[in-house]
Specification:
The structure is a homotetramer.
Chain A: H1 2-8, E1 12-21, E2 26-34, H2 42-55, E3 70-75, H3 80-90, E4 97-103, H4 109-114, E5 119-121, H5 129-143, E6 145-150, H6 159-167, E7 171-176, H7 188-195, E8 199-206, E9 216-223, H8 230-253, E10 257-260, E11 263-266
Parallel strand pairs in A: 3-4, 3-6, 4-5, 6-7
Antiparallel strand pairs in A: 1-2, 7-8, 8-9, 10-11
Helix pairs in contact in A: 3-8, 7-8
């Protein structure tokens, strides 16, 4: 039916992928089509599609690939994920645009500004947290940010903030430096070292009110051994974190990730 | 000092490896030396070494590579790990000798016996468990078994059994079908599927009284995706389990594993 | 059109997957459907489908999942791949049936026969090769074998043999103990060691007249280091070879592999 | 003997590692020791050690960890490896100092200069190559550069240049975007796509006069499938190239790499 709708309006399907979750009985489909020759204007597509979507009780989301979603990055002191992401945008490897960077410390201010990206310093203490989250929310709203990336941001965003940003239509990706659900919370490499694991990992997931428990988008691992100290795990993990976070951000910005039931479908 | 002792007695060091755990201040060393030309008889080596070991407060263990440790394998219905291990012994890839196989079901009896290895059926219920563990202990003692391998044995051995077998000088390796410490306990693939992880793993560890919490010897992982059902995870995991368990058993039988503080040093 | 044809005849599509090779302009599709309620008898399906397939100039292949393709395994002295495959069939993990094993040595005869599978000894010298390949061809024909698996068979099958077996409708999968196209031909682990690579691999591919150059079905790798001797590479490689070969054989027997232009499409 | 020499002069061994290549009969050792309390001045250590080294016919190299080797980076248009390396230096993850960047195009000039690192534009044509290599050699000499990193530099350095820079005591690390020795030379991802491999890789090695044939320092791989176009391989490969090159550069700058017989020992 989706293909028919597109064909009847003169569209040309470039790529289509589907998936059925047999257990919960949900069908997922992602259709990429070209607007060249399409006989509906952009704002009329969704209304015209309403009949089809009503018939199958679909949740529909329509994105245009020439839209350029704004992204904000949160960081603290460790810069590898931030450098990596900004580098990718700078050389044109990632969709979207970095709108600004927010740090609760100023360590990464100079680097950010050297690439002509605004840096906001929002230091957070127990007392100032609600106030600072409010400021952040306003910055996000003002810039029209759709995606927040927590690039080793060592603070927990409140459920209140998460709810409000979600209402604005925003989503948040976090990188956790362990192979979740192993070692959630603080100091995962220290935990991993104490447990004596032979492999460590990194996990990029959507942030939810439950700490380190949101839908997983991307994971990767690297072997370690008894010779590796906590410092070695941290060093080896950094490369993982960069690559895993970038992988998740890219998939999200290419509209290839669907989340449901605290899981994700990541289309290819 | 170790090298001196060996050299002074005419021994020849073939391989030596050491490791220092800086945090707890323990020094580990594994020295392989040839007895050709050695001027001490086997049973006199440890007493003669006593002075050195006392001086440095060493824990010393001396093994002869022509000894052939006896191994018992516990299984239930799933045969892949058992087939794999017996195949490796049959073609001479593993040290030691499989003394016998114990199953709480009889599914794997025929295959075991086709390779001329004794199979004992010890069905376990809540009531019969102590009694059956007693029988098992006697079988192990009678055959002089030093290593028990739980090859997807879907029963938990009691702390009492573990303690007694340890007193006999025995050790137990278990394969858990997840990337521990993620998903301990029952149905790890089902748990992994529900959590929506993008990678699953397998972990071989020494069994301790704390379920799935013993020192990890070997781990490996494989990528999965949203298309993989629980059955797919089980299938993909089987190959991991075989290889990870065999890796741990080989390392153990080659006396390359030292466990301390609920961790392992695995020498190469 | 394919879906329409199935639907109109009362069939129910269970799984469908497609792929387009944009460069050469070929479209691939694999459709699994249930015959329950299908209103065409098995032998009438292909003729009835003729119209559709003619229209799109399709190459069509129809397989029934309750057919049980016969498989022959060729081996020499090294048994790990043979043991692994026979074990998988024995415990019901693989489609098809092992019809017989052929060895140019008798090392693996006892194990094969212990599982009640016939073993044929066909020793090969330069002189006897044509004659022995003839015997093999007759054995394959007599047993109705569709797939030959070279499980570390250290002989090269002649182009003549390959051609004749292909005419009988047969296909041949080989495991090469390197990450092809690196290190084709003899002693790949020795070559790898000399080159000082940091990773070694294994490759399962369809055998063609060009040595180690057929379409690749499956590959995997493992890390090695300067401490690893050739013997270590051989040992580490064995586990790879087993798993990679089994993966390729499984995909083939589940009719998930399409080969074209010396490449493969491996559906999931 | 090495340990004795250090101990007798009041030094304290921090880390020691050895390796024996049994085939060629070479023994390698790397000893890290602290100069705190050492009773020889820096320039007197090697002469004093002469007796020991003569006795065992050692090749000895002595490096001080507070020396800060100068590094030059060569690049063309693709910036991911350059960005990644400069980022690592900027945030203090790598030893050494980037002295300058040379490009045969100017695409990466702005980014380099935004981090306050000099950029030299040395365009290369068949005619100007000797002259430009001469200029490069002078730049390297003037800045006292010890390591040149070819960060996706799409030019081949002449044997003449390699010889002269080696005479100055310099070494050169190149990243090749394939799993060598598979797919040497131009367009490895295109070659890999045509061959239909299921895994692609990246290789960091010392540059020698023989193209893509120098001693391998680091390698890594990533899975690909029939859905991946050449563009997908390029994208997936970029993350590999960054991480593999950085790994090799780090090991080199920490003096952990020894090369001999066109191989490397990479100490941990």
């Amino acid at each position: 039916s989706v293909a028919d709708f597109i064909a009847q309006n003169g569209g040309n399907i470039i790529h289509a992928e589907q998936h059925t979750d047999q257990e919960v009985g949900i069908f997922f489909q992602r259709v990429e089509f070209s607007l060249g020759g399409f006989n509906l204007e952009r704002e009329k597509i969704l209304p015209a599609f309403g009949e089809v979507s009503k018939k199958f009780k679909m949740n529909v989301s329509l994105k245009f690939s020439d839209e350029n979603p704004k992204v904000a990055i949160l960081c603290t002191k460790e810069g590898h994920c931030l450098y990596d992401l900004l580098g990718r945008w700078h050389r044109g490897e990632l969709d979207g645009t970095p709108a600004f960077v927010v740090g609760n410390h100023t360590d990464l201010k100079n680097y950010t500004e050297s690439l002509d990206i605004p840096f906001h310093h929002l230091p957070v203490s127990k007392e100032t947290k609600p106030e600072q989250e409010d400021k952040l929310l306003k910055l996000l709203e003002a810039a029209g940010v759709e995606l927040v990336v927590m690039a080793r941001y060592m603070q927990i965003l409140s459920a209140d903030f998460l709810g409000k940003f979600k209402k604005q239509g925003g989503q948040i990706i976090n990188i956790h430096h362990s192979f979740l659900p192993a070692f959630p919370g603080a100091s995962p490499y220290k935990q991993a070292h104490e447990r004596g694991v032979k492999i460590v990992g990194a996990t990029a997931h959507y942030a939810t009110a439950e700490l380190d428990d949101g839908p997983i988008i991307s994971q990767d691992v690297v072997r370690v051994g008894h010779r590796d100290s906590v410092a070695d795990l941290i060093r080896k993990g950094r490369d993982l974190e960069m690559v895993v976070l970038a992988d998740a951000v890219r998939a999200h910005l290419e509209h290839r990730v669907l989340d449901y039931n605290n899981k994700t479908v990541v289309f290819s």
